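Before the break, one more example. Copy the sequence into your notebook; we will annotate it together after we see the structure.
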Amino acid sequence: YHILLSLYLKPPSPHAVQLEPALDLLSKHGSRLPATSTLSLIPDDLPVNSLESYFRGRIRSANSLVNESRIVAGLRKAEQIAIAARLNIGDSEINGQGGRNRHVTITDERHCFVCHKKLGGGMRFGGSVVAVLPDNTVVHYGCLNRALGQKKADG
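Here is what the structure looks like once it is written out:
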């Protein structure tokens, strides 16, 4: 479109300037043209009000880009919220007991999946520090890396 506009406004010597088709081209496709080179082609004696539709198109195009980026940012934020909710609450487990919000009961009879030692530890207060894998397997926190390695080898 830029070449056509330049032919309308700066034609070769035997031809005359064609303002009407140039203004029509600017009003229909002006937002697709680079602004600096387009405005440099416009004659200095052309009234600004005749370029109103060109400027409206440029403003509309700029606004649609801004609105599109706002929509994309909103969608990304909604996706992050959904991921955080799935991580914290879980969505595939029965009674919503998934993600980080689930609980596991540790008894004296329960054993670590990796080292097979008791998880309860028989302590009067508290017990061992444990980690719960996504499939609800309970391991000592110190055994976690080995448990993840075993799960990858098995799975």
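Strands lie at 130-132, 138-140. Residues 27 and 56 are 8 Å apart (CA to CA). Try to locate both features in your own notes.
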